[in-house]
Each structure stands twice: as structure tokens, then as C-alpha cells.
TrEMBL record:
Catalytic reaction equation(s): adenylyl-molybdopterin + molybdate = Mo-molybdopterin + AMP + H(+)
Entry protein name: Molybdopterin molybdenumtransferase
The family this protein is said to belong to: Belongs to the MoeA family.
Enzyme class: transferase
Pfam families: MoCF_biosynth, MoeA_C, MoeA_N
PANTHER family referenced in this protein's UniProt entry, alphabetically: GEPHYRIN, MOLYBDOPTERIN BIOSYNTHESIS PROTEIN
Ribonucleoprotein listed as a keyword: no
Record-annotated MoaB/Mog domain positions: 202-348
Keywords in alphabetical order: Magnesium, Metal-binding, Molybdenum, Molybdenum cofactor biosynthesis, Transferase
Protein purpose: Catalyzes the insertion of molybdate into adenylated molybdopterin with the concomitant release of AMP.
Gene that encodes it: glp
């Protein structure tokens, strides 16, 4: 068996005491194998699912040449026959032979010297290849006139198959289906699509101090927020989220939870119990029923992280396997490690090919202290000024326990591994939380 420890050593920069974020991401990437089974779902249910097969267009879209404007369709050969108009522009005069509306084509063929009144989306009448927009024309009775120089042959005609050609893949397998894709498949007249099965992700919190909502809060206790944050983050990825509740800091309870999680899920996420001092019994347990490395990531927040494989059986390799991420306990660290380390793995496991989250350059409004040798993800509020320049200000407290900093923020300020202290006005990378579609 390839063990995680063997594999980790093959990665450049491997240092279990301070593993660079990029190195951790590279290791995780190698272990994130996609689910393979697929199912057919009605088109609308395919939103935020991953296509299991290419969608080949059964038709041309648009199906016919049609007009891009409201105006008059005619044969561009007529442009050469326009009559000079004194010193002014050459004018073309055409008789209106009929009309073509969207859904109501013109049946005949436009004879020489005629045109067809046409509305946007209506099929181009036989014998016509050009549309003059109505705002360029003068209409008197049944005659339309316009400056011949104002239109080029073929203008304002959309070609059949211009959007999608019959027989060509319209969307590729691995596509994460977004709103435009749902509409695009609908435009092909396809009612059902084949998608990969949803990824199953089980999650639980650990800690004797944790109380669930509805329970009284004894001295020294805190409400378990991580499980709810994890649920919400998983929901956004449209995976099947399996909530396993709170597990006490006790080896028997932890073993039972981890084994049943591995039996039922592709990925298991825990929070808490991986920091120095707390990790000992977790580590011992996972040495038996898993192949899990305990990392100190060169990252802030989110230093302690356990990553590897676990099995549902009594020993590593027995029973159903699952990928395991032991996230830190601090609420902000949970979110940062989820977005920077876990998210990409989950997306890869859904079978999707998704581009990396774009970074945007911004001027930092204040000086920031930063030690080289770790990547920091501060919480920031970014805004774009009238000149198109982005500016970012860190939210108040950057404590990894202060969830309010995540709630207020609209971006991560990404301070690169090698970066040192920054002065006000220096350029930083930001990762905006919200994308449009
Ligand atoms: P740990 O990593 O278990 O030592 O936890 C680090 C800090 O995060 C401690 O202050 C915990 O009380 C807090 N914490 C751990 N788990 C949770 C949770 N599920 N919800 C809120 N806070 C938590
Ligand atoms: Mg704990």
C-alpha cells in the first residue's frame, strides 16, 4: 500500500513541521480520486451537479438562419443596384413583400427588388441574406428606402448552428453545471442528463466543551458552531452532507464515529482534537484504523491539520475507505482550511474540472505585520474605487476564534509564503468570497 507518509516525502518542500500550503494542496490533490458512478436526473436537478458524459447537440442552435434585429430582410445582391441620389448616399428602394415574425416565418421567396418585414429571431426568408435595421430605413406606403452604404452584405443575420452545431459536444463531461449550462441544455431540447453521483461527506465536531443549540451553556462550554459552518459550506458545494454530531474527547467514542463515518461516506471531516496535546489519542487511534499524517501547515490560521485515509474496519485497509481531514477546532481556522485545502479536493472528487479561484490585486489600506515562511489568510473588506483599483482593509480582530471577522469580510487577503511585513499602499492578492454565477 502506498502510505501517506511515503507519498508525502516525495513532494518537494516536505517538512512535516511546517508544510507549505502549496505542498499540502499537492499531496491532497493526488489522493482525491473522483467518484465514478452516474445517474440520470431531470435537467433542473442537474444544477451544481457534474456531467458524467459529454452532451452532444442533436440540433443546430439556432436551427435556422434568423434575424438579429427588427428591420427588413433582403438579398444583398440588391446593394449593387442602388440608384445614386444626387451627391448624397446611394439609396436602395425595396417593396415590402410580406412579413416574418418569430414563430411565423415568411412562406414565399422574396423576389428581386422586394424585402420582407422581419422581427428579431424570425427565420430569414428564402432569397434573403441581409437585414437592414428599421431605424436606418424610411417607409412610405409599401416601399422601404435606406442608404445602401449603411449595411454590409450578410449584416444582422444569425447563422444556423452559430451557437451550437449538430453533432458537436455542447458541454463536456466534468462540467460543473451552472445556470447558463442548464439553459444551454434546454436549448437543445434535452430533458434529462447523466451526472456523477453526489459525493457523500460526513462531518462531526469533537470536544467535551461543546454544547449543541438548545442545550444550556455551562461555565467553560461553547456552542458547537463548526458543524453548522461545515454544513453550510458543504451545502454550497452541493455534496451530500452527513451530520454525525458532537463526539466527546474519548477514544472509544471517536473510534466508533470514525469507523461508521468511513462506512457511509467518501470523505470525513472532523473539527478539533488535532492540536498539540489534544492530538495524542486521535493520532494513536488513526495509526490503527487509518493512514493519517498529522501536519503542521505553514499557514495561519489553520496550523494543525490531519490528513489521510481511514477505513470502516478495525484495521487500516479493512472495510470501506474514506478520505479524512482532521481540521483545527478554531472556527475561523475551520473555514480557512476548508476553503484552502478541503474544497479543491471535494470538487476533484465530484469529478468536476474547475478553474482555480482567481486572485485579484489590491492596495492594502494599512500596514500588516507578516512573518515570511507561512501563508496567511487574513479576513478583509475589499472595495473598488472609481478608477477601477481595488483596496482592501483587514477586518478588526484577526483571531482565529473570531467568526465575526469571517462574517464581516468579503475576501481573504492572501499573504504569500515568502512575504514579509507590508506597508500601507503595498499590493496584496485578495480572493473574493462571492462570484456572480
Ligand atoms: P481544539 O483544536 O479542539 O483544541 O479546539 C481549539 C479551539 O476551538 C477551542 O477553543 C475549542 O473550544 C474551539 N472549538 C473546537 N471545536 C469547536 C466547535 N465545534 N465549535 C466552536 N468552537 C470549537
Ligand atoms: Mg478540542
Amino acid at each position: 500500500m502506498t502510505t501517506l507518509n511515503n507519498l508525502s516525502r516525495c513532494v518537494a518542500d516536505y517538512d512535516p513541521e511546517a508544510l507549505p500550503v502549496a505542498a499540502a494542496q499537492a499531496i491532497v490533490r493526488q489522493w482525491a480520486t473522483p467518484v465514478t458512478s452516474a445517474e440520470h436526473v431531470p435537467l433542473r436537478d442537474a444544477l451544481d451537479r457534474v456531467l458524467a458524459a459529454d452532451i452532444v447537440s442533436p440540433i443546430d442552435v439556432p436551427a435556422h438562419d434568423n434575424s438579429a434585429m427588427d428591420g427588413y430582410a433582403f438579398d444583398s445582391a440588391a446593394l449593387g443596384t442602388s440608384t445614386p441620389n444626387g451627391d448624397g448616399p446611394r439609396t436602395l428602394e425595396l417593396k415590402i413583400a410580406g412579413k416574418a415574425l418569430a414563430g411565423h416565418p415568411f412562406d414565399g421567396k422574396a423576389a428581386r427588388g422586394t424585402c420582407v418585414r422581419i422581427m428579431t429571431g424570425a427565420p430569414m426568408p428564402a432569397g434573403c441574406d441581409t437585414v437592414v435595421p428599421q431605424e436606418l430605413t424610411k417607409v412610405e406606403g409599401e416601399t422601404v428606402s435606406f442608404a445602401a452604404d449603411a449595411v454590409r452584405p450578410g449584416a444582422n443575420r444569425r447563422r444556423a448552428g452559430e451557437d451550437l452545431a449538430a453533432g458537436q459536444p455542447a458541454l463536456r463531461a466534468g462540467r460543473w453545471m451552472r445556470a447558463a449550462d442548464i439553459g444551454l441544455v434546454a436549448s437543445l431540447g434535452i430533458a434529462e442528463v447523466s451526472v456523477r453521483r453526489r459525493l457523500r461527506v460526513a462531518f462531526f465536531s469533537t470536544g467535551d466543551e461543546l454544547r449543541s443549540i438548545g442545550e444550556p451553556l455551562a461555565t467553560g462550554c461553547v456552542y458547537d458552531s463548526n458543524r453548522h459552518t461545515l454544513f453550510a459550506m458543504l451545502r454550497r458545494l452541493n455534496v451530500e452532507a452527513i451530520d454525525l454530531g458532537v463526539v466527546r474527547d474519548e477514544p472509544g467514542a471517536l473510534e466508533a464515529t470514525i469507523r461508521s463515518a468511513a462506512a457511509n461516506a467518501d470523505v470525513v471531516l472532523s473539527s478539533g482534537g488535532v492540536s498539540v496535546g489534544e492530538a495524542d489519542f486521535t493520532r494513536k487511534l488513526l495509526d490503527t484504523i487509518g493512514d493519517v499524517a498529522f501536519w503542521n501547515l505553514a499557514m495561519r490560521p489553520g496550523r494543525p491539520l490531519a490528513f489521510g485515509r481511514i477505513w470502516s474496519g478495525a484495521r487500516a485497509g479493512d472495510g470501506h475507505p474514506a478520505l479524512f481531514f482532521g481540521l483545527p477546532g478554531n472556527p475561523v481556522a475551520v473555514m480557512v482550511t476548508f476553503y484552502q485545502i478541503v474544497r479543491e479536493a471535494l470538487i476533484a472528487m465530484t469529478g468536476a474540472s474547475v478553474d482555480p479561484v482567481p486572485l485579484v490585486g489590491a492596495a492594502c489600506a494599512v500596514a500588516i505585520r507578516k512573518r515570511p515562511g507561512r501563508t496567511e489568510f487574513q479576513r478583509g473588506i475589499a472595495r473598488r474605487d472609481a478608477h477601477g483599483q481595488w483596496h482592501v482593509t483587514p477586518t478588526g480582530s484577526q483571531s482565529s476564534a473570531a467568526l465575526s471577522s469571517m462574517s464581516e469580510a468579503n475576501c481573504f487577503i492572501v499573504l504569500a509564503h515568502d512575504a514579509a511585513d507590508l506597508d500601507a499602499g503595498d499590493n496584496v492578492d485578495i480572493m473574493l468570497f462571492d462570484a456572480l454565477v
